[in-house]
Amino acid sequence: MKEIAIIDRNRESVRKLEAQLRGRGYRVESYGDETVALERIGERPPDLVISELALKEHTGPEIIRELRRIAPALPVIIITGHSNTQNAIDSMREGAYDYFAKPLDTEKTLLAIEKALDLGSAGDGVSFTGEGDEAPLGHGSRLIGKSPEMLEIYKRIGQVAASDAAVLIQGESGTGKELVSQAIHDNSKRRTGPFLAVNCAAIPETLLESELFGYEKGAFTGAVSRKTGKFEQANHGTIFLDEIGDMTLSIQAKVLRVLQDKAFERVGGRETIQVNTRVVAATNKSLVECMKSGAFRVDLFYRLKVVSIFLPPLRERGSDVLLLAEFFRNHYNTLLGKNVRGISAEAVELLHDYHWPGNVRELENNVQTAVLLNKSGVLSCEDFPVYAERERGESAGRPGEESVDLHEAFHQVLAGRFASLCIDHKGSIYDKTVQDFERALIGLALGRVGGNQVRASKLLGISRNTLRNRIERFGGLDNLK
């Protein structure tokens, strides 16, 4: 029988988990005092330990180190009621098998427990071998969010930070790819070295090669002295190559050589330069599609994609929108010398419902504008630029739309198709026509509001349940386009 030890001062918060584990045939020992727990575990190590992050005498990373000292192969799962970015990163960096925030999703937790027990070790965890016990928060503290999607990102950062593996970060523009790359650097053994970011799309291709690799005196007109490139400047640190999908094939070949051989030549030079630079790359393009079209090297793709991190768009992060809005409100209060005390309920609903095509960057710009222009001390809908955009979009159609006679338009469409309707759908013409019209109308409404079903139901004037039933009847969202 597999044995599991649970260390948590708040026994009530894990009673459901305990019952589930016992019901599945595991032997469970629970401890409210970590000193007693460590003593018992030292005498008889269990097969798995589940520990609260904030204990009386130890933090999460400290308890992991103590357990590693007692039994190096012992899998440890961390649970916490006070989740934040750095807690998750630190726990995974120290070698935790997994990390969950309370209230626990029992099914996900049980699945992780089963996998950890099957592996029989925490080999998938990454132990931090850099100098010192604590990594600084650094720029990574700007990673804001408690959604399950972001928790997975924090865990992945903690797992990969200590290695020198190349990382490919994918996601839409404005999702925070540079912040993730900075957090990887800040929590790595390279954190005392340089971190340099290069936007490959912002530098003309004729200049990008010399920007990355440097050049020798006389390499071209205007090269009056030697210049070191970013790869050389980032030696013993990390280079972040943003929008790498915009890089030309010739420069891709030189980046591939750096990844393979840690070597390159400056533009116009013959000397081979050796560097120890970690590469983190990012793109908002589909590199798979770029490879199919011949615009991106297959060998470089797989060299970069040793570890892949996908950043979810803001519209998929739920309540993180409001956490970020509050963070930016406080930030711009300080920066702009304002005293905005909060956000109104109506504005909260606006921010939550908006689909944020520009992601976190768009949200930040909106909050900055709102704080700057606010006079009442509480942010209202009218303070946010997206409110004016939404009002224009929902109340004012294209020029001339208001005067369109829909009856006449429908009559013209049906007149050209009515003969075939009579042949193909005799006896069900009414149902067929109304269903197709309803399907088209719902598809257009959802497209208008970026797929947000709450706003689409308000726009159409029907209940959310009615909208959901219609979507199911038509076979899902993909059939509404």
What's the short version?
By secondary structure, this protein is of the alpha/beta class.
Describe this protein with a few key phrases:
481 residues; alpha/beta; Rossmann fold; Helicase, Ruva Protein, domain 3; 4 domains; 5-stranded parallel sheet; 21 helices; 46% helix
Helix content: 40-55%
Distance between the termini: 53 Å
What is the strand arrangement across the widest sheet? 2-1-3-4-5
CATH class call of the largest domain = Alpha Beta
Principal-axis shape equals globular
User: Can you summarize the main beta sheet?
Assistant: 5 strands, parallel
User: Total number of helical segments?
Assistant: 21
Radius of gyration: 28 Å
Q: Into which percentage range does the β-strand content fall? A: 5-15%
Structure explained in plain terms:
The chain is of the alpha/beta class and 481 residues long. 46% of the residues lie in helices and 12% in strands. Helix 13 (320-336) crosses helix 15 (359-373). Residues 121-141 and 395-403 have low confidence and may be disordered.
Give the arrangement of secondary structure elements.
Elements: E1 3-7, H1 15-23, E2 27-31, H2 34-43, E3 48-52, H3 60-70, E4 76-80, H4 85-93, E5 98-101, H5 106-119, H6 148-160, E6 167-170, H7 177-186, E7 195-199, H8 205-213, H9 230-233, E8 238-242, H10 249-261, E9 263-265, E10 272-274, E11 278-283, H11 287-292, H12 298-304, E12 307-310, H13 320-336, E13 342-343, H14 345-353, H15 359-373, E14 378-379, H16 385-395, H17 406-415, H18 418-424, H19 429-448, H20 453-460, H21 464-473
Parallel strand pairs: 1-2, 1-3, 3-4, 4-5, 6-11, 6-12, 7-8, 8-11, 13-14
Antiparallel strand pairs: 9-10
Helix pairs in contact: 2-3, 4-6, 10-12, 13-15, 19-20, 20-21
